[in-house]
Design brief:
Layout (H helix, E strand, L loop, with lengths): L1 H37 L9 H11 L8 H18 L16 H19 L5 H32 L4 H10 L3 H4 L1 H15 L10 H4 L10 H25 L6 H18 L8 H24 L2
Helix pairs in contact: 1-3, 1-10, 1-11, 2-10, 3-4, 3-10, 4-5, 5-8, 5-12, 8-10, 8-12, 10-11
């Protein structure tokens, strides 16, 4: 029985990142289609995200800045791939029972830190400026996110994500039991996606795409793959915390797409914030709302 259980866990550890990547491709497609509609364009064809990744991986990579530049790519992808096996989904729990929400939070910080290590190996000032802004943004959105996670853990009485899903399935969704924290979580996760108005560390028209300026060929392909994992992970995490998770994929996937659709639909409505404006906004509104939600949960 133990060998059978171990084999099932190993199978889930392989299947969960694969499912995340496939769903992430559709999330990227949705993101591009929504943006195209807002800008009154037709948008990309159905398989365009996959074509882009294949094209970049088939290109010859001409630039490398040493071993750390290569290790950074492994950290970028490894952080999100490891996150998937701690994020319970319908019929697959992976290591979510052994790990918890705190483990997942640490893993979500790895990709940005990996990018910082890789970009630090190059002498391009655009890349250095971009990564300094990225780390400042990470500090800004992590504070309200940590408060939201703390409030959710207090409300549910556990940090185990499997138990959190079970509690919501038997009582009510976190969206209804702690709506203030749910709102703060959605606002902070918007910033985690790095979409307008929080894309200052990319800023194509200002610093030539920032940290990605030294990434070409397979390196850029890895960033595209990372984006697929990022969209799925953030959408799935919010769904697990506040939307009851899912007992079936037919109910789980629409929630993920809805969570990602909300920030994507409003990205073109606001101009890009400067770094100080982004930090000020995140520490003022999401953090303030999260603190109110935390106080409500603690005295409930």
């Amino acid at each position: 029985m133990e060998e059978l259980k171990l084999s099932e866990i190993l199978l889930e550890m392989v299947a969960m990142p694969l499912v995340a990547f496939i769903v992430g491709l559709f999330l990227v497609l949705m993101m591009r289609r929504v943006k195209a509609k807002i800008e009154r364009r037709i948008g990309p064809p159905f398989f365009q995200p996959l074509y882009d990744i294949m094209k970049l991986y088939n290109k010859e990579t001409q630039v490398s800045h040493g071993y750390m530049h290569d290790v950074a790519i492994m950290l970028l992808l490894g952080g999100y791939i490891a996150s998937e096996i701690f994020l319970p989904v319908p019929h697959m729990h992976g290591l979510a029972v052994q790990g918890d929400l705190l483990t997942l939070m640490y893993l979500l910080m790895v990709p940005m830190l990996g990018m910082a290590l890789g970009v630090g190996q190059c002498a391009n000032p655009n890349a250095s400026i971009g990564i300094s802004r990225a780390l400042s943004s990470m500090l800004a959105y992590d504070i309200p996110f940590v408060i939201v996670v703390a409030g959710a853990a207090i409300m549910y009485g556990t940090t185990n994500l499997v138990e959190i899903v079970e509690i919501q399935q038997t009582t009510e969704w976190g969206l209804f039991s702690m709506p203030i924290l749910a709102l703060a979580g959605l606002m902070s996760m918007h910033a985690m996606l790095g979409k307008e108005p929080f894309e200052i560390y990319v800023a194509p028209s200002e610093i030539a795409t920032g940290p990605m300026v030294e990434m070409n060929g397979k390196y850029m392909g890895a960033l595209f793959v990372m984006q697929c994992f990022q969209l799925y992970t953030i959408g799935a995490l919010y769904t697990v915390l506040f939307l009851g998770g899912g007992v079936a994929w037919l109910t789980f996937l629409p929630k993920i797409f809805l969570v990602i659709f909300i920030p994507v639909a409003i990205t073109n409505l606001y101009g890009r914030y400067r770094t100080d404006d982004a930090i000020r906004w995140l520490w003022k509104y999401p953090t303030g709302i999260a603190l109110i939600g935390l106080a409500v949960v603690m005295f409930k």
